[in-house]
């Protein structure tokens, strides 16, 4: 019995060590990417990229900030920090991060000019593009596999996603009304009703990704 107990304790300690290394590595990586983006803000970039709102108008950057904040509180032991970490990951980091990867590369494959024009390559090298839009995926999946999370009730999670989505849609419209430029060129192709339809479709996909994260968490870690 003592041997079995010792083995379980050893495995638990090893898992805690792996999680700590993972979270520290993710923290350093996100801090590095955010610093690179901050430096770029002062450079002579193509018109409209950081005009009015800087990087804060891009869902990719907002997702980086959310994931960075989640990683900052990951190792704290207090219940409040544990709750905030679960909340940030389950409702925002996972569904929004997956949405960024899914939508960005789908649109990029169809016509990159609609989401990431070729002129961007001069200022943001390919490795930075992948850092913002590709490596998010393995980091999120690693988090699912290494760390259990307490998810909110489904209706509460969907309601919070709706509020966050409406807030971002309002922010995008505000930027357009002030500077006459869309955050993403794709949005300029839609009519007013088309914009609403695209927003609702995006929200629908976000809900599906929230349910996917909740299902994976339940499948791997149980209740």
UniProtKB/TrEMBL annotation:
Its main location: membrane. Signal peptide: none annotated. It comes from Denticeps clupeoides. It is found in: Endomembrane system. It catalyses: 12-octadecanoyloxy-octadecanoate + H2O = 12-hydroxyoctadecanoate + octadecanoate + H(+); 9-(9Z-hexadecenoyloxy)-octadecanoate + H2O = (9Z)-hexadecenoate + 9-hydroxy-octadecanoate + H(+); 9-octadecanoyloxy-octadecanoate + H2O = 9-hydroxy-octadecanoate + octadecanoate + H(+); 13-(9Z-hexadecenoyloxy)-octadecanoate + H2O = 13-hydroxy-octadecanoate + (9Z)-hexadecenoate + H(+). This is Androgen dependent TFPI regulating protein. Keywords: Membrane, Transmembrane, Transmembrane helix. Belongs to the AIG1 family. InterPro entries: ADTRP_AIG1 (IPR006838).
